Amino acid sequence: MMFPVIGLLLGAVGGLLINYHVPQSYSVYTAMAILAAFDSVFGAILASMHNNFKLSIFVTGFFGNAFIAVVLTVIGNSLGVDFSLAAIIVFGTRLFNNFATMRRIFINKHTNKNENQ
């Protein structure tokens, strides 16, 4: 469980310390990549909670999801169709589902631990 959490913390701290502004013309693409990356991080944390985290799956999913989200957004923009909405719906739904599952696992784990004491 530590790799995705450490990566998330390092990325957040690095993002706050680096004074870089994304040009507005790239903001949609950056947002899609960040959303896809968060989906991968939450999926990795959930996999770690289920004791089946694999770093190779996390890394390929992290970059693969971000790449696909950006490519779909580029294709959509060139066709005049907002494909970014599809990515927002899919990755947003997965984020909320993963978070809900992680929350339940955490609560059940700590509730059971307190009941056994």
Instruction: Note the beta-strand portion.
Output: under 5%
Average of the residue pLDDT scores: 86
**Structural class of the helix and strand makeup?**
mainly alpha
What is the helix tally?
A: 4
Shape: elongated
- Main sheet, how many strands, which sense, barrel? none
- How many beta-strand segments? 0
> What is the CA-CA span between the terminal residues?
25 Å
Helix content: over 70%
Cα-based radius of gyration, to the nearest Å: 17 Å
Q: What is the count of structural domains?
A: 1
Low-confidence stretches: none
Please, could you describe this protein's structure?
By secondary structure, the chain is an all-alpha fold. The chain has one domain. The protein is 83% helix and 0% strand. It contains four helices and no strands. The chain has helices at 2-17, 27-49, 55-79, 84-116. The mean pLDDT is 86.
In short:
By secondary structure, this protein is an all-alpha fold. The protein has helices at 2-17, 27-49, 55-79, 84-116.
Top keywords for this entry?
117 residues, mainly alpha, elongated
Outline the fold blueprint.
Layout lengths: L1 H16 L9 H23 L5 H25 L4 H33 L1
